[in-house]
Write a structure and sequence with these properties.
single chain, mainly alpha, four-stranded mixed beta sheet, 16 helices, 4 strands, globular, binds zinc ion
Length: about 425
């Protein structure tokens, strides 16, 4: 008879895996039903600005994406079950064990890379379908299959170049740094993330997109004035060729400290007028002024600290391995099991994170309303919702659970209160 904690872990894991999968499917189906039920009528607040056919296009686009998510959810749950209790990880480990019986760190890195390769290989068809069937059908895709695969190769190489040193550091610390290995790893991980934030806009993002300085003098003038008024310094205003991949529009800030820059998608500049662009930028400035980025970083560092401390304890518990389908105990197996399984245990945090993020959006909107024009922000948002075919009528529960941004109607009615 297996040791009791083993069984408890197995049953807990299976129950949570089934429960989270069912909840996700249920939410997705609710969303599709709600969106379709509201397909034939533009919500009253948008009657003048969004035509019925654009509203219907948004409904059908949301439905197509959500249906794909349902299939993906099932496939991912099956994959996770196969890798853990199905013996997949143990099988991968056995193969590398036969080839490299003594080199534990190298073997560990290879086992982890193999498991990640399997997961990405299974995600790939979904990403391909989303780009070349769903987005293509709705006229958003601008990529060619050649670009898709060259992006994939570039992403993998960058991921490998950045991930391999961290992985080796982790395995090396686990093997030789004593009982506080997880604490040292947390320090390295945190420093790595801060360095990434600083170098990403200047060194990594340009590998995938072209960034050119903003040329429109009139717009530049307006933006500089807004930045000065808000007491904000940036390393420059850039236009990104987002249109080479997709026709969705956006604007964002990246980096921190001295490498901070403002980036506009070319698609955004094409569609919005100067006043609207200024309002969108003021919203983004609101995120900075409320320290949303720093708060998020502190939160992620706290979560990874707790996670690593937990892993530091679990690594010494035999039931942690046997309860999840692994018979041969090793440091690297603890690491990969933890990475694969923790999202299931953290699923209930999702609505809390989403709600926190929506609170941040309201704060940024409030800032924008006070430093630019709320009316122009509303106009910009309506255009973005329309051109990105985002649904105006999400299922309220689905939205509460997942959405990082508040539903359009709530957000716009709050902003409208500033103008009246
Ligand atoms: Zn925002």
């Amino acid at each position: 008879m297996p040791f009791a904690p083993t069984l408890i872990l197995t049953y807990t894991f299976v129950s949570l895996l089934v429960a989270t999968t069912l909840v996700r499917i249920w939410l997705a189906r609710r969303h599709v039903t709600h969106v379709q039920a509201n397909r034939n009528q533009v919500p009253a607040a948008f009657k003048d600005s969004i035509a019925l056919d654009a509203h219907q296009k948004a409904a059908d686009y949301s439905t197509a994406k959500t249906k794909l998510v349902i299939i993906e959810t099932v496939v991912q749950a099956l994959l996770l079950a196969a890798l853990t209790l199905g013996g997949g990880l143990q099988w991968i480990d056995d193969i590398w064990h036969n080839m490299l019986p003594t080199q534990e760190i190298i073997r560990g890195a290879l086992v982890i890379c193999s498991a990640m390769l399997v997961s990405s290989a299974i995600d790939l068809p979904f990403e391909y379908y989303k780009t070349f069937v769903v987005d293509e059908t709705f006229g958003f895709n601008k990529m060619t299959p050649a670009m898709f695969f060259s992006d994939l190769i570039k992403h993998s190489l960058v991921g490998l170049a950045l991930g391999a040193p961290i992985l080796f550091a982790a395995l090396w610390l686990m093997q030789g740094a004593g009982q506080y290995w997880w604490l040292y790893l947390w320090v390295i991980w945190s420093v790595f993330n801060l360095v990434m934030l600083a170098v990403y806009p200047t060194f990594i993002a340009p590998l995938f997109n072209k960034f050119s300085p903003l040329k429109d003098e009139n717009l530049k003038q307006r933006i500089e004035t807004l930045l000065t008024k808000c007491g904000f310094k940036s390393q420059g205003l850039f236009v990104m060729d987002g249109s080479s991949r997709s026709s969705h529009g956006n604007a964002y800030f990246t980096g921190f400290g001295a490498s901070k820059r403002v980036v506009f998608f070319d698609t955004l500049l094409e569609r919005l007028n100067v006043d609207e662009i200024e309002a969108v930028l003021a919203h983004e400035l609101g995120h900075f002024k409320h320290h949303h980025v720093i708060k998020r970083i502190v939160m992620l560092f706290s979560i990874s600290f707790l996670g690593l401390a937990l892993l530091g304890w679990l690594i010494n518990q035999p039931w942690f391995y046997t309860g999840l389908g692994v018979t041969q105990i090793s440091n690297y197996m603890a690491l990969i099991l933890f990475l694969l399984v923790s999202p299931i245990f953290l699923f209930l945090l999702r609505p809390m994170m989403a709600s926190y993020s929506r609170k941040n959006e309201f704060e940024a909107d409030d800032y924008a309303a006070n430093h630019a024009s709320a009316k122009d922000l509303v106009k910009a948002l309506v255009k973005l919702y329309r051109d990105n075919a985002s649904t105006l009528t999400p299922d309220p529960l689905h939205s509460a659970f997942y959405d990082s941004h508040p539903p359009a109607s709530i957000r716009i009615s709050k902003l409208a209160a500033y103008t009246s």
